[in-house]
Write a structure and sequence with these properties.
22 strands; globular; five-stranded antiparallel β-sheet; mainly beta; single chain
């Protein structure tokens, strides 16, 4: 079980994007964009071990189109956007840099799958951040009946060596379509221009309980060419929804985990984490 306790703060939706950037910068990431007007925010880290090259783009833009003047922070939009850009070489100040994954499309980062959120709406933000990854969960007052959402940017725990910048992942409880996540590339599926999609799995059967014990698992991802590749740490999911209730607490000796209800898996809305229920450690 996880030793990482998620932090919890309350932010207004209009301040969420800037707060996430601040959290990353304070945790050791750098924004290396040489031309923010076109390259947006390019986040970079050498990782906790100092040996990695982790890159991705993010922007306060409320669309997955190439360009737009609609911002996430100042509109009612429920999403901003990110891109797995691969290695980035900055230009001189004011000059666009070069992206290894130049043909990747922008991906929507939803803070809930269901409703528009006004700029002054308060959000309960749970987050865990280090130089390897940012994980953040957006939650809302129970009376509003707005589902939570969890997003993951950064390196997973891999089962084998990867390219220096290959294993940056985007996983989300509202991933768009299919039970999947995105990864910059893996060795046998290396692509110069775009990241790849990996299927996700649970190391559980279809039941949540043995007696009074609740069963939960990290999510594992893989490819058809290389098998199981790694796992997403600090986030737990369930084999079924039986007996799970939003807001429930699970105790493992001194550790306390909270259950959040995110998106239901349907024909149009899917989760990287398979179940609509996820759990993170809060104590």
């Amino acid at each position: 079980m996880s030793d990482t306790i998620f932090n919890k703060i309350t932010v207004l939706k209009k301040d969420l994007y800037s707060k996430l950037k601040q959290i990353m910068l304070e945790s050791g990431w750098k924004n290396i964009s040489s031309r923010p007007s076109t390259d947006y925010d390019v986040m970079f880290s050498n990782g906790e071990d100092g040996k990695k090259e982790i890159y991705f783009q993010m922007r306060d833009v409320a669309t997955n189109a190439a360009t737009s003047s609609t911002t996430f922070s100042n509109s009612n939009s429920r999403y901003f956007s990110m891109r797995l850009s691969g290695k980035y070489v900055p230009g001189s100040s004011g000059v666009s840099g070069k992206f290894e994954k130049s043909n990747d499309t922008w991906k929507l980062v939803l803070i809930t799958y269901q409703s528009d959120i006004s700029p002054n709406h308060p959000i309960e933000l749970y987050y865990s951040c280090n130089k390897d990854r940012l994980i953040f969960l957006t939650d809302y007052a129970l009376s509003l009946a707005i589902p939570s959402a969890l997003n993951y940017f950064g390196v997973p725990v891999t089962f084998a060596d990867e390219h220096e910048w290959s294993s940056c992942v985007f996983a989300s409880s509202s991933i768009g379509s299919g039970r999947r996540l995105y990864v910059t590339d893996i060795k046998n599926d290396y692509s110069v221009t775009v990241p790849i999609t990996c299927l996700t799995y649970l190391g559980l059967g279809s039941k949540n309980k043995i007696g009074e014990k609740i069963l939960m698992s990290n999510v594992i991802y893989g490819s058809t060419s290389e098998g199981l590749k790694g796992t997403i740490p600090e986030v737990f999911s369930f084999g079924s929804t039986d007996g799970l209730v939003n807001g429930d607490l699970i105790r493992d000796e001194e550790k306390v985990y909270k259950i959040f209800e995110t998106t239901p898996g349907t024909s149009t809305v899917y989760s990287s984490f398979i179940s609509k229920f996820i759990a993170i450690r809060i104590q």
